[in-house]
Amino acid sequence: MATVEYKGVVLDKERRTVMRGKRQVNIVGKEFDILWVLLGMQGRIVSHTHLAMNVWGKVRGTDSTMRVHVGRIRRKMGKFSITTVNSYGYAAGEMRP
Predict the structure, then answer these.
(1) What is the dihedral of CA 72, 73, 77, 78, to 10 degrees?
(2) What is d(CA 94, CA 97) in angstroms, rounded to the nearest whole number?
(3) Contact in structure between 59 and 9 (CB atoms under 8 Å)
(4) Total-model pTM
(5) Cβ neighbours of residue 53 closer than 8 Å, sequence gap 6 or more
(6) 27 burial via Cβ count (<10 Å: 0-12, 13-18, 19+)
(7) What letter would DSSP give residue 95?
(8) Is 50 exposed, middle or buried (0-12, 13-18, 19+ CB in 10 A)?
(9) 58-77 burial, b for 16+ CB within 10 Å, e for fewer?
(10) Beta-carbon neighbour count of residue 49 at 10 Å?
(11) Distance between CA atoms of residues 36 and 41, nearest Å
């Protein structure tokens, strides 16, 4: 899977680019990795543990760093929705039952 798309947002894994419509959004490094995991599981809740293991390869010491990166993604993406699921993790996209 080289690209992931959700409501006009397209992530290209090979180029590590994020397009929102025709505009490129400056999402780089770990921010891109986090968004890639969340959109790859769109509509599902992704635990802190799953996200940390897939982005950093470890769990310990990533909680505050993860919050900072998610905050940056939210600021850069505008109305794009990343939902915080308290004490568990995050979700991107419309939640599935």
Answers:
(1) -50
(2) 10
(3) no
(4) 0.89
(5) 59
(6) buried
(7) P
(8) middle
(9) eeeebeeebeebbebbeebb
(10) 12
(11) 9
First to last CA, the chain: 25
Nearest alpha carbon to residue 17 among 8, 6, 28: 28
HSE-CB at 12 with a 13 A cutoff on CA atoms is: 10
**How many other C-beta atoms lie within 10 A of the C-beta of residue 29?**
11
The model's pLDDT over 11-47, given as tens digits with 9 standing for 90+, comes to: 999 999 999 989 999 999 999 999 999 999 988 999 9
Query: What is the token pair recorded at 25?
Result: 């959004």
- Hey, what are 2's tokens? 């080289």
The residue count for the chain:
97
| Amino acid identity for residue 35 in this structure | L
Task: Tokens for 41, please give them.
Answer: 């599981």
